[in-house]
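Title: Prediction job returns without error message
Component: structure pipeline
Severity: low
Priority: P3
Assignee: unassigned

Description:
Job completed but the reporter wants confirmation the result is attached to the right record. Sequence as submitted:
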Amino acid sequence: MTALLSIGELASRTGLPVRTIRFYSDAGVVPETERTEAGYRLYGEDALVRLGLVRTLRDLGIDLATIRRVLEREVSVPDVAAAHAAALAAQIRVLRVQKAVLEAVARKGSDPQEMQRMHKLAQLSDDERKRIVAGFLDDAFDGLDMEPGFAAHMRSVSPDLPEDPTPEQVDAWIELAELVQEPDFKASIRRMSEQHATAREAGERLAPDAGWQRAAELVSEHAGSALAAGLDPASDEAAAVVDEVHPVFPGALSPAALADRLEVGLDPRAERYWQLLAIINGWPPVPTTVPAWAWFVAALRERG
């Protein structure tokens, strides 16, 4: 017959404190084989194996109730491992977001109110983040006859914060969430949408085409260079830029009419919306072009 081990011997051979073994024994995960006449616990050799498994599972964060079910073969170790790994993955994601928020707070020197707001927005689920942006677009398009492809594209683009976001991505999401809930910005985007719907009703072609793309490239190139050079929109040089770029725009609008059309879209926050989405989703950076367009609109008005 194999000699039984006292709790002290078990502690010596496993390196676990006596009080820990006693706790596991009382919890039923490492039951004693018998007790001496004096009431001292005695354990069989199998207790060494059980304690080794208990210790490993506890180090992995498995609770005692689940460990007991494993030892009693009510559940398998692979099933428990898979479930616990999934739970840990969710916890890790939360911790990474919390870390990014704290780094952002430290970097920005946020006050308690801003920290609470940042934390609340950062803790939102993917679905909650997408609902915030979807609600913003619903308000922008409500009741308007938008070009289907344009509306579908706008709705298809949503913030997708990665599982391990950088502080910059967390910052971008918080800024975006606050931006799309800002009444003045919502009103600005609504005006853009109304202009779109009015042009669609008038039979204008609104789907992106080569003409608009080429015109946009020329504005970025020529108006951007003119702005960087400090040219006055009322100068002869600015008039030359307008004469070169204006005819490329589809629709044969006059300079004044084209200026009216473009001016509605000059809200820099609309461009910032796309820049923030690019940061959040890990896309290539979206360049800042609104100042060049604003210069071009001013030059168009001078050509009236």
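Comment from assignee: result matches the submitted record. The radius of gyration is 33 Å.
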